[in-house]
Amino acid sequence: MKQDFNILAELEAVAPTLAITNKSMPYTLPNGYFDSFSEAVMTQISIDNLPKVAAQFTVPQDYFASLSSNVLNAIAKEVTGKNEVIEELEAIAPILNAIERTNIYTVPETYFTTFAANINNVISTSKVVPISSFKRKMLYVAAACVIGIMAVSAFIFTKNSEKIDYAAYKQIDVNSTINTISNEELLNYLENVNPITNSNALTTIDVKLVDIQDHIETIPEEELRQYLKEVEVPVSDDYQLGI
Amino acid sequence: MLVEDTELVYQFKNSANKEMAFTAIVKKYQEKLYWHIRRMVIDHDDTNDILQNMFVKAWKGLVNFREDSQLYTWLYRIATNECLSFLDQKKRKGAERFDDHESGLSNTIKADSNFDANKLEWKLQLAIQQLPERQRLVFNLRYYDEMPYEEMSRILETSEGALKASYHHAAKKIEAYILGG
């Protein structure tokens, strides 16, 4: 403060008009300049400190030598493409070339600037909602019911359609049909066609046969005689059924 | 600086922030696609609905997008299909009400606040609406978007020869309409 006073006193002595002049700055600064200043300086520092990486990238050989001609070719191609459309129209309907190709319809102001944000809202609201577990179970039940109904229907349908006509079989005279077949054909059939006769499948089956002797012994003699009478086998009284 | 389509698709498929990549795609193509649709359906609100639907479909399908075709062509194809199905629907509704679909579109043009029957630009719009839908599409893509037939054939899945013939017929019909008053 003492120093300030000295400076002021000195100024009063040297140039008294200046001593009474307002010291405020007439210049203006951008709003918030100092709020973001430190950040700007730090950004600049970090950019300056970045390693110079440009030299690490490689460029195809002769890239820069052919760059200008490539650019010119691309431009020429674009121009030729546009000319092609105009020339074509000139040949078929020249009056259409005279009309300015501007969009004459109007679009609401800011439509295109807000569209991308709107579409993101639409997408976020139309995202797929997962089905609850109860609903999922109900779907499985419904699917099972449909499959069941189809299976039952198919069974009923095939059962009816494959009905065997036994009456037709009865009308076939098997004996006379077999008589018309030669012995050679029958032998050939038995050897080659019917695999069961040749297979050893039956011999491998372990079947315990009923002991017929034991079985007959359990039947009363009177009952046996009656049976033999019925099948017309002559039986004498001394015929020993017990063998 | 515009990012390449392949880069945007890559970011969409692989980045955690796929919304950002998709927003970039929307911003890149929204205007071109808007005008492609608007020239077909005329009304702004209908155009907006179709544009939104097509971008929602693009969002759902982009994950399976195969890069053997261009993103630009693929988006145009979705927009075109959406337009055609919208016009079909409108036509069916019109048939129920015994309206003529083409005259409906012409009426929409005439109802525009800037419509001026003496201006060639507006006459041209009326003439385009007289064309069948597919021919209108071909004419618009060639006349306004200056699209090569090769690219058009990928979008409309029609041979280049057929497209050329269609465009020629369309241009002659339009010229006759304009000259006829």
For this entry, give a set of tags:
heterodimer, A: 243 residues, mainly alpha, 13 helices, elongated, B: 181 residues, 0% strand
Short description:
Chain A has 13 helices and no strands.
Description:
The complex is a heterodimer of chains A (243) and B (181). Chain A has helices at 2-14, 16-19, 33-49, 63-92, 111-125, 133-161, 166-170, 174-179, 183-193, 195-198, 201-204, 212-217, 221-230. With 243 residues, chain A is mainly α. The radius of gyration of chain A is 57 Å and the shape is elongated. Chain A is built from 13 helices and no strands. Chain B is mainly alpha-helical. Chain B has helices spanning 5-14, 18-41, 44-61, 71-96, 101-110, 120-129, 133-143, 149-156, 160-179. In chain B, helix 4 (71-96) packs across helix 8 (149-156), helix 5 (101-110) runs antiparallel to helix 6 and helix 6 packs across helix 9 (160-179). Chain B is globular. Classes of the chains: A mainly alpha (243), B mainly alpha (181). The A-B interface holds A 81-82, 85, 88-89, 92-96, 98-108, 111-112, 115-116, 118-120, 122-123, 126 and B 19, 22-23, 26-27, 30-31, 34-35, 38, 42, 44, 48, 51-52, 55-56, 59, 112-114, 120-122, 124-125, 142-144, 146, 148, 167-168, 171-172, 174-175, 178-179.
SSE diagram, text form:
The complex is a heterodimer of chains A (243) and B (181).
Chain A: H1 2-14, H2 16-19, H3 33-49, H4 63-92, H5 111-125, H6 133-161, H7 166-170, H8 174-179, H9 183-193, H10 195-198, H11 201-204, H12 212-217, H13 221-230
Chain B: H1 5-14, H2 18-41, H3 44-61, H4 71-96, H5 101-110, H6 120-129, H7 133-143, H8 149-156, H9 160-179
